[in-house]
Amino acid sequence: MELIDTHAHLTFDELAADLPAVLQRSSEAGVTQWITIGTDPENNRKAAALAQRHENMFAAVGFHPHYAKDITEADIQAMRQLAREEKVVAIGEVGLDFHYNFSEQDAQSRIFREQLTLAADLGLPVVVHCRNAFDEVVAILDAFAGALRHVVFHCYSGTAEQVRMLLDRGWYISFTGIVTFKKSDEARAAALQTPLERMMIETDCPYISPEPVRNTRPCEPAMLIHTARKIAELHNMALADFAEAVTRTSRAFFNLPA
Fold first, then answer.
1. What's the predicted TM-score (pTM) here?
2. Chain segment 50-96, per-residue pLDDT in tens
3. Residue 123, number of CB atoms within 10 A of its CB
4. Counting Cβ atoms within 10 Å, is residue 55 exposed (0-12), middle (13-18) or buried (19+)?
5. CA nearest 16: which of 2, 30, 42, 1?
6. Helices 73-83 and 105-122, interaxial angle, to 10°?
7. Span 151-198, pLDDT tens digits
8. Rounded Cα distance, 39 and 47, in Å
9. Residues 6+ apart with CB under 8 A from 254
10. Is the pLDDT of residue 135 over 90?
11. 155 closest CA partner among 70, 234, 64
12. At what angle do helices 73-83 and 41-53 cross, to 10 degrees?
């Protein structure tokens, strides 16, 4: 069995300090490829460099909406150069976060659009962060209809009804350990109605440790097995069959080698 952690923050201090052991535990659990995700200029550089050092690791580069207020044109151009590197496979994570509003909403929207333009220019898929801004994110993405290669809503936390809107547009959904939480009926309903050819799974580590290890910190890629097991149960599938299907979807989305 093989799984891909399609959204991990392996450059964050909680994991970087013990990364060889983290990756060893991950491989032993069957999670054998990883995409480490950029969030700001420094983290993008670290993510791209880390992917170069590990055969089965890849990177996405992007500016999280939290940092939109600080992003300059020089930062955008530097990201464009990083995005051309061989092991950079996506633009992300990008989007809008109207929950925390650490950056003004106008700045978030502007930087989001600039990064979508870059993704369209380079033909790279997009990893989307969306929190309390569903309608606004969808409207901006709709303006790029036909220009973007692929779009995934990571760490999906919307409703089952909203899933249908995303699927109807040809986009993908990625689920975290939230689906294992006792009170996350909505997340499970969303996962149940997402076809496996449009589904990916992730840890978003070092955050969101799943049940039954929810109290373990930090979360790490090995824990993805719990999310996989829960969604396989929802789809009434054997774990190995689910893993094969969702891994196939992930590799096609990010154009990863087998």
1. 0.97
2. 999 999 999 999 999 999 999 999 999 999 999 999 999 999 999 99
3. 11
4. exposed
5. 42
6. 30
7. 999 999 899 899 999 999 999 999 999 999 999 999 999 999 999 999
8. 9
9. 6, 35, 58, 89, 90, 125
10. yes
11. 64
12. 10
Judge if the upstream peptide bond of residue 42 is cis by omega within 30 degrees of 0. Answer: no
Whether 110 has a pLDDT exceeding 90, the answer reads: yes
The closest alpha carbon to 3, from 23, 26, 24, belongs to 26
Of the chain, the percentage scoring pLDDT greater than 90 comes to: 98
pLDDT band (50, 70, 90) for residue 258: confident
Q: Is 197 exposed, middle or buried (0-12, 13-18, 19+ CB in 10 A)?
A: exposed
Sketch out the chain's domains with CATH numbers: 3-254 (3.20.20.140)
Work out the number of other CB atoms within 10 angstroms of the CB of residue 54: 16
List C-alpha distances in Å: 180 to 90, 203, 209, 247, 258: 27, 12, 9, 19, 28
Please give the DSSP secondary-structure letter assigned to residue 158. Answer: S
Strand partners, 90: 60
What's the pLDDT at 240? 98
Instruction: Scan for tokens 């500016």, then name that residue.
Output: 63
Peptide bond connecting 212 to the previous residue in cis, omega within 30 degrees of 0: yes
Contacts of 46 (CB under 8 A, 6+ apart): 11, 38
Q: Which strands sit side by side in the sheet containing 126-131, from one edge to the other? A: 3-8, 31-37, 57-61, 88-97, 126-131, 151-153, 172-175, 199-201
DSSP bridge partners of 112: none
